[in-house]
Amino acid sequence: MSATRAQNIGIRAIDVYFPSRYVDQAExxxxxxxxxxxxxxxxxxxxxxxxxxxxxxxxxxxxxxxGFMEKHGISYSDIGRLEVGTETILDKSKSTKTVLMKLFxxxxxxxxxxxxxxxxxxxxxxxxxxxxxxxxxxxxDGRLALxxxxxxxxxxxxxxxxxxxxxxxCILVGPDAPLALxxxxxxxxxxxxxxxxxxxxSSEFPIVDGPLSVTSYVRAVDHAYTAYLDKLxxxxxxxxxxxxxxxxxxxxxxxxxxxxxxxxxxxYNDFLRNPENEAxxxxxxxxxxxxxxxxxxxxxxxAFINVSKKEFAIKTEPSLFAASNIGxxxxxxxxxxxxxxxxxxxxxxxxGKRVAFFSYGSGCAASMYSFRFRSDTAAITQTLDLAxxxxxxxxxxxxxxxxxxxxxxxxxxxxxxxxxxxxAELFPGTYYLQKIDTxxxxxxxRTSLN
Length: 450
Known about the structure:
EC 2.3.3.10; three-stranded mixed β-sheet; globular; Peroxisomal Thiolase, Chain A, domain 1; 16 strands; alpha/beta; nine-stranded mixed β-sheet
């Protein structure tokens, strides 16, 4: 049992993993026969990571955890909690976290709390909350926690496929963290809605109501952001809180154009709370528009994108580096955002600043919460080496990408199966699927570190 209460609990270190292959979105536009800019401008995406049948959610999580522990020199015996946020399900009963316990065998540490937590793209945030609250409670035993979040985002052939992606993140949660969670500054919104869901367990593909999903996202921004501002006012005594009280904002990014809309929505909410603010002089015509009507008002949306453009470029755009180059990582998306922010913005500019996270999962569950930068993030940035790693990937043609998607679809939930993917193309240190036996038990290998 820890003798003293943990202080400044939060993110002590972070690492990410994404597959070694990607497809260029401009080339995919040409291949799909759509108008130039539909994916690159309309969605705001440049490249999309994908994997073949050699990788699944368990192998990817093993890759990021083992790589994280090796890079940071952390012993598995120092971990007291490990929780996985994912919606990529391999088994309806057995959690991905239990597969990761294979990595703990050599240390002899089997006393590790936590399992999987699932609700679309929100599971990673729930896992992070659970880890931080465990550490902030009398149940904490003094050890550190790992939060693993990520997914393989794939869609059926058609309009939604370019909004896929693939990636996982590993976060070390501990006291005296460079990014300290601001307890209890948190706004949460949840409701029952069928915007994106996966009822067909024989398929990887979701059922998506695109327009409803976009509306659900911005509705969640409205409610979570307003609740967060109310906490700022009540807990910290901030008068008329607004975007000016948040230095950086990281969003869940299904595609980066949606984040632009989400940020504009926060500006819209600031306008509703303080319509006489001179910053909103050019949008006074929207003062009497009802909130419900505003969701489908494209003129209003465009106006607030324009009003908030300069602030967006400073506070949010740097966090979209990974999202534009990888695509949607579902539960890992918001955390790839913070990895991007510390990569793109030097610590001298981050020092002492507040960064808010907006996490959204369809169905729907959403929260806005925040951290403070307390100490130097240079070591995190150096270890991530994000830009160089992204550039080291292999570019696949759209034809190869489509062929891989067909392979994944054909072999989903296969048994007595040996994967066909090329192990030689995987990054060093990548765990991969060797075979699935007649009882659906999966065996994994690992590529050489050299």
